[in-house]
Amino acid sequence: MSQTELEVEKSTQEVVAFCVAEQDFCFDIMSVREIRGWTETTTLPHAQSYVKGVINLRGSVVPVVDLSDRLGFGPSEPSARHVIIITVVEGQTIGLLADVVSDILAVSDDAMHAVPEMVSDQVKAFISGVVLVEDRMIRRLDLGRVVPTAGREAA
Amino acid sequence: MSAAGTDDFRSSFFEECEELLEAMHDGFGLMIDGLGDKETIHVVFRAVHSIKGGAGAFGLTALVAFAHHFETALDRVRSGAVTASPDLLLLCQRCGDHLSDLVATAREGKDLDPAPAISLGDQLDAVIGPPVAAEAQTDAAADAFEPLSLDLGDFGMVPDAPAEVSGYQLKFSAEPELFSSGNEPALLIRALARFGTCSVKAHVADVPPLAQLDPSMSFITWDINLETDASEDVIRDVFDFVTDCAHLTVSALPIMAQPPLPDLAPPPSLPSPSNPVVEAPKPKVESAPQPAAPTASLQTIRVDFERVDKLINLVGELVIKEAMLTQAVGTIDLPTGHDVLQEIEGLKQLAGEIQEGVMAIRAQPVKPLFQRMARTIRDAGTMTGKRVKLVMKGEAAEVDKTVLERLVDPLNHMVRNAVDHGLETTEDRLAAGKPAEGTVTLSAAHRSGRVVIEISDDGGGINREKVREIAIERGLVTPDTPLTPSEIDALLFMPGFSLKDEVSELSGRGVGLDVVRNEISSLGGRLAISSEMGQGTVFSISLPLTLAVLEGMIVVVAGQTMVIPITAIQETLHPDSAHIHTIGSGSRVLSIRNTLVPVADLGAMFGFRKEPSDLEDHVLLVVETEAERRCALIVDALHDQRQVVIKSLETNYAQISGIAAATILGDGRIALIVDPEGIAAGVAPVPANADPITHTADEGELHVAN
User: Fold this and answer.
1) In this predicted model, what pLDDT tens digit does every residue of B587-646 receive, in sequence order?
2) Are strands A60-66 and A92-98 parallel, antiparallel or unpaired?
């Protein structure tokens, strides 16, 4: 019995779940550095529309990606209720603008599923799977695909 | 000893090598200039010798072999067996260069092609004769700085050495690593005591008060007197495991010498570790390699660069916080002279001083950089068959370390150019009545908050007729463009301009001066050129002292606060419609003091808005770039001028064209710093000498090829 428990432990992962355009998304909590309230950004010239601008994170210049715009739901109108999830992706610190953070969930491998066929292509390009928790379906974001491409392409 | 400990020793060995190589190159330089004295050759010899010793400890066989060969040759010069002819000195310099290469490759853990070492070795042999093994070894044994790792066998060749001594005086002090590598001085001293009667005096003058004491550091120096009949090798063996992290001098006490020092304050006869040969009584005196010894007068510490950078970042934060506090207090509307305002003023000054102090830590003298150029000049001289002398001036001037590192490539390029293109051939020089040997001068000087580095040659100067021809050939200018001499010189910096019909092994690799100029301007520097026919050419680089802060003008464009570097701003003016002309479809130029400058809206360039048609409520900033391209930027308002802390955009995002970096303002928000270079590149140019009367809107196109 204890053996089984151990295995369950091993294959459990913690994710942070949040809402964008009234849909549930999540990603590995290990990528999250902190969650902040919305602050005004400084607009960047020649940036993709989904890059809201940059904010000052304790002395570092951190770009903020509007997830709603990035995932094809149209640009969001950020208010004080919005949150910026600070993540580290491939060594770069990036802020992701989301409507609200809902949960931190422990998800076992059993609950992870491949992306169902019917999901629209726009979203499908950014998610690496879905998680079924009770009656909710949470889309698992592939962070590497969400971050701005400007720097990588130029490099 | 842990692996990490070994790594520490290794890296400190290579750091010491840098210093030793510098001392060696300095010495050769002095000798070639005829300025060396008796001591110079000893300094050079000891430097090579210490490198060899250290390299032996790390098993760097190729380095040891070459250093040994080189050292043997130097020893013969030192002993007067061979005269230091100019040819031999040049050969020695090349050997020194090779030694630098060997150290560099050893540091990276690579191997170097052995051919040059063999060839140089053969050349050395040809000049000084092949090394006589026994002689070399005896000399080595007599040397004051023979390192422990190599002299174990040598010493036995001096048969009467042990008989002369009744004991030893040891002076021992430890680096902090001694403790971290698990060694303990007390155990070492106890081990010594096994060989005879031992008296120890600890010098504790350097030990700080308990509250400030770092227990992992060693502050104590020990004087040990040991009466024994054991050989010096046996004594030194005790310290075998700590040679890399301690300073040890062992001097033999002759028989019948004074008894162990009654008063252990250092008596006059106690050999000083820095020059034991001079002061010691008759017996041989040895000391472990201790390159740190000469620094006694100027105390330095080695600090991890990351720690300094972290401190600089924190100070930057402090300056920003101070600005935020000032701004917040400003909103309270306190009466003038209020205590709070005074205290804030004090805080501001303090923060400024701390910032200055921290920046100074990063500052490094330009000397090592110049010395690298000496090497480049030698190589370039050999390849082109020109005799070249390097003159260095103001090499003590200090510049930010990062700036120095990034100057290596541009400077290399310019120095090679100076030898290859700047200097004439020996025949031409003689024909022109100049000395056969060309001179390249590198100078550094501080001027009004910037450092100016000049690379000048005494060559033939820029052949402007030829430059012009080439520029026309390459389609950079039209044949009928009138150009002043300085404009012709500026053509050298244009992309695509390369004297390709003079392709040589050295220059003309398709990397032109434009690349050099871009590199300089990315450092916030300016590159200028001046040349006189028959007299030579001067390239001068003006650089900021630091990359961490920048003097900027705060402006507002389309609701965004932005910073424009002060160095680029020539003047600010309110647009007067009489001076603004429209050319073609909507592009505007400003006529100012008989020249035309293209006008561009900063907001429109960054895609923040459409270019305003009415400039009544706006301000024009005339900026000039390194290439002396000017443009007038439209902004909405000017705020104050202040120092801003530079923050990278690239770390978490990417480079943006027209933006140099970012900074954080007093309100905690980010402002972007405009890159005048990038902006000007996006603006259609107007020739600097264009006559406003001939280029009105009716005449349309300007005949500028770009």
Assistant:
1) 888 888 888 888 889 998 898 888 887 777 889 999 887 666 788 999 999 988 887 888
2) parallel
pTM comes to: 0.54
Buried b (16+ CB within 10 A) or exposed e, B268-290: eebbebebbeeebeebbbbbbbb
3-class secondary structure, B351: helix
Answer yes or no: do A44 and B658 touch at CB < 8 A: no
For tokens 């050319």, the residue is B583
β pairing state of B285-287 and B438-447: unpaired
Interface test with A, best of B561, B602, B652, B675 (most A CBs within 10 A): B652
List the end-to-end C-alpha distance of chain A, in Å, as a whole number: 52
CB pairs under 8 A between A and B: 77
Question: A40-80: per-residue pLDDT in tens?
Answer: 999 999 888 999 999 998 878 999 999 999 988 899 998 88
What lies within 8 Å, CB to CB, of B413 at 6+ separation is: B507, B511, B513, B515, B516
Give me the interface pTM, i.e. the ipTM.
0.85
- Interchain pair B317, A58: CB under 8 A: yes
Please give the residue of chain A at the shortest CA–CA distance from B653. Answer: A151
C-alpha–C-alpha distance, residues B172 and B187, integer Å? 13
pLDDT digits (tens, 9 = 90+) for B304-332: 878 887 888 788 778 878 877 888 888 88
Q: Residue B542's pLDDT band (boundaries 50, 70, 90)?
A: confident
What is the C-alpha separation between B544 and B542, in angstroms, rounded?
A: 7
